[in-house]
Amino acid sequence: MNNLKRKILTICLTALICVFFVKISAANADEINPGTDSTSTNLTDASNNVLPENNANNNNADNNSENNANDKSDKKENSQDDKKKKIDKKYKKLYKQAKKELGKKYRYGATGSKSFDCSGFTKYVYKKALNKKLPRTAAQQYRSAKKVTKSERKSGDLVFFGSSKHNITHVGLYIGDGKMIDAQNRGVVVENVNAPWWKAVGYSRPYKFN
């Protein structure tokens, strides 16, 4: 009888010890798992924090690049506009001076300011408006300046007339649209370059407006 009681007691103690160890193991597992989950969560949060910043940096870089490109384009356009304004301003001075002489008399050998011959007129308006000194005769004015073709001609160029480029007898100031201001027998007038009494043989550019 005593042996049976001892066996039952031993079994009960063994069972209690097993239950105790099981509880301790479960408690240890709970302590370990939360730490792992926390680490994983922290890594995820860190990843989430970094990605939006990287995206923001990329967006900023793209925006900066686009803004720089726009700034360069604006500067280029502004520079071209400024350049065009300077060209227009200089030509307008020349054109204004030439128009002031309209109606004045023609006199062979005259260089202004009350009367002109053809090369005296072009010499006078270039000097007066742009402080550009031209040679005295039409032939000399043609030879001394840069030659341009009819398709290249611009307002402010000189147009020359004669039987050939080697026999120039007349010069006028080209003002665009196939017209010029020149001093001829009727005085200083506006007329067509292709007038039937003239034969255009060349163009020159005594002044570089740009």
Automatic annotation (TrEMBL):
<dbReference type="Pfam" id="PF00877">
    <property type="entry name" value="NLPC_P60"/>
</dbReference>
<feature type="compositionally biased region" description="Basic and acidic residues">
    <location>
        <begin position="69"/>
        <end position="85"/>
    </location>
</feature>
<dbReference type="GO" id="GO:0006508">
    <property type="term" value="P:proteolysis"/>
</dbReference>
<dbReference type="InterPro" id="IPR000064">
    <property type="entry name" value="NLP_P60_dom"/>
</dbReference>
<keyword id="KW-0732">Signal</keyword>
<feature type="region of interest" description="Disordered">
    <location>
        <begin position="32"/>
        <end position="90"/>
    </location>
</feature>
<feature type="compositionally biased region" description="Polar residues">
    <location>
        <begin position="35"/>
        <end position="52"/>
    </location>
</feature>
<dbReference type="InterPro" id="IPR038765">
    <property type="entry name" value="Papain-like_cys_pep_sf"/>
</dbReference>
<feature type="domain" description="NlpC/P60">
    <location>
        <begin position="88"/>
        <end position="208"/>
    </location>
</feature>
<protein>
    <submittedName>
        <fullName>NlpC P60 family protein</fullName>
    </submittedName>
</protein>
<keyword id="KW-0645">Protease</keyword>
<keyword id="KW-0788">Thiol protease</keyword>
<feature type="compositionally biased region" description="Low complexity">
    <location>
        <begin position="53"/>
        <end position="68"/>
    </location>
</feature>
<dbReference type="GO" id="GO:0008234">
    <property type="term" value="F:cysteine-type peptidase activity"/>
</dbReference>
<feature type="signal peptide">
    <location>
        <begin position="1"/>
        <end position="29"/>
    </location>
</feature>
<keyword id="KW-0378">Hydrolase</keyword>
<dbReference type="InterPro" id="IPR051202">
    <property type="entry name" value="Peptidase_C40"/>
</dbReference>
<comment type="similarity">
    <text>Belongs to the peptidase C40 family.</text>
</comment>
